[in-house]
Amino acid sequence: MMLQPPLLELRHIQKVYPTGDQGVALAQTLKFDRGEVVGIIGPSGCGKSTLLRLIAGLLEPTDGHVLWSDESAQTPKMRMVFQDAVLLPWLTVKQNIHYSHSRGGISVEDDFKFWIHQLGLSPVLDQYPHQISGGQRMRASFARAIGDRPDVIFLDEPFAALDEPLRIEIGFQFLNYCKAPPPFVFFCHSFHHRGPDLV
């Protein structure tokens, strides 16, 4: 019986910025399998977001390698939710949510509709980001990330800017999403930001 190769392998990655500041240094090789939920936990400024961006391909490592499984010809479909709701201001809420799908995602219209309903976004679909609340913008970011069933989801402290009731509500909705089929989830979490129990 052949063992399935890991989805992701981090080999001694290091990031040093042009200023000479070291963003992150990983002195070992780490391997992660499909369906895992992995947390990077630490205080502000310790390099959590830098490591997350290296894994997501938003930054190039100064040294080392970020290796995704090559058992298929396609790279995993990845989505990211940032601490702030990164929505395109010239698009409506609905257009923002469907943006990844319009750029080549697989059609999963029923999933988009489900999460739009679950996250309470139906009344504001035709409005623009500046016309809705911060909590609604964050919900739209989640709907955009999970609506087309990505293989990998990156969360960069997305609950930090939310008040406690909304943080708990969205957190549990996301936990339910992760149950079936389980995506690979990689998240940053500060000690002082209490979010859903993902670990």
Spell out the blueprint of helices and strands.
Elements: E1 8-16, E2 22-25, E3 29-32, E4 37-41, H1 48-56, E5 63-68, E6 78-81, H2 93-97, H3 99-102, H4 109-118, H5 134-146, E7 152-156, H6 164-177, E8 184-189
Helix pairs in contact: 5-6
CATH architecture designation: 3-Layer(aba) Sandwich
Shape: globular
H-E string? EEEEHEEHHHHEHE
Q: Tell me the β content.
A: 15-25%
The radius of gyration computed from the alpha-carbon positions, rounded to a whole number of angstroms, is 17 Å
Stated plainly, the CATH topology is called Rossmann fold
- How many domains? The number is 1
Helix/sheet category: alpha/beta
Main sheet specs: 4 strands, antiparallel
Helix content: 25-40%
Which CATH C-level class is it? Alpha Beta
Tell me the CATH superfamily. P-loop containing nucleotide triphosphate hydrolases
Instruction: Report, as a whole number of angstroms, the end-to-end distance.
Output: 29 Å
